Amino acid sequence: MVVLNKIYTKTGDAGETALGNGTRVAKHSVRVTAYGTVDELNATVGVCRLYAEGVVDAALSRIQNDLFDLGADLCRPDMEKDAEAGYPVLRMVPEQTARLEAEIDAMIERLEPLRSFILPAGTPLATQLHVARTVARRAERQTVELATMEAVNEAAIRYLNRLSDWFFCAARIANDEGRADVLWVPGANRD
Q1: How crowded is the C-beta side of 162, counted as CA atoms within 13 Å?
Q2: Residue 124 belongs to what domain range?
């Protein structure tokens, strides 16, 4: 259990922070940037939930919890030393991505195939889901960049990749199951 009885510690005042294994690194390190963007994504999902109800809100709640799991995974390097930690280290697992895939498949069954690219617009929920989609893509790019330098749990990368697809499909569902999608009109304003 986490106990936070003091919010500021002053230990980061020199531009460093502690990773999950206690290692101190620069706050601008690729690892901190990756899990910081996952945190930003989680806050963005919180904004989506302002407009969501029922099963969509419940799914977004699960995603927020998964994103905390993902941040915990990314903030702890040295996966090969997990057994030495003395406690179970939280890592993303394939089942979390499989759940997203099942939900994506269920949404796609409700949607007509796209015949045009769509603009990130529409209902307030759809628009916010598109924002979440773009933040998820950025988090994925940063995590993939981190993986070129250090070991990263492959399940974390897969989850982020699938999550942006989930947000895209959910945005279409929020746009009256795609009927209110705003279509891109190539070159519409060139004259």
Answers
A1: 21
A2: 23-183
